[in-house]
Amino acid sequence: IIDAICTERPDENYASFRFTGGGSDFTGRSLRAQFLRIILDHIGFDIEDNKGDLVKARLHGDNQLIMERKLELLGRLLGASGLRDLYLKDESQVEGFVSDFLAGRYHFATVS
């Protein structure tokens, strides 16, 4: 779930993000949640108290241009994280996915 407002008034701008679940076992879902938290933190979101596969984060107060850029990255993150829970088997893989995403490689179809 994403709820966001992006205006010319920074004090009105915010984004709220909530993500949970998936088709994999709890380990895969938790590893995907870890991937999401790391990227969201890097983008500038405040990560709320999360447990297991639940990810809750909030962003607020950025100017319109910065907010637009962060929301675009959030969209890319959602696209890149689809089905990640099925592929992530251990914590060492999370770091590689994070590095790829931060380097602008958003498509992980070739990863086994």
Short description:
By secondary structure, this protein is of the alpha+beta class. The protein has helices at 26-43, 64-81, 84-87, 91-102, and strands at residues 2-5, 14-19, 46-47, 55-60. It has a 4-stranded antiparallel sheet with strand order 1-2-4-3, covered by helices on one side.
Provide an overview of this structure.
The chain has 112 residues and is an alpha+beta fold. 46% of the residues lie in helices and 16% in strands. It is built from four helices and four strands. The protein has helices spanning 26-43, 64-81, 84-87, 91-102, and strands at 2-5, 14-19, 46-47, 55-60. It has a four-stranded antiparallel sheet, covered by helices on one side. Strand 1 (2-5) and strand 2 (14-19) form a beta hairpin. It is globular. The mean pLDDT is 90.
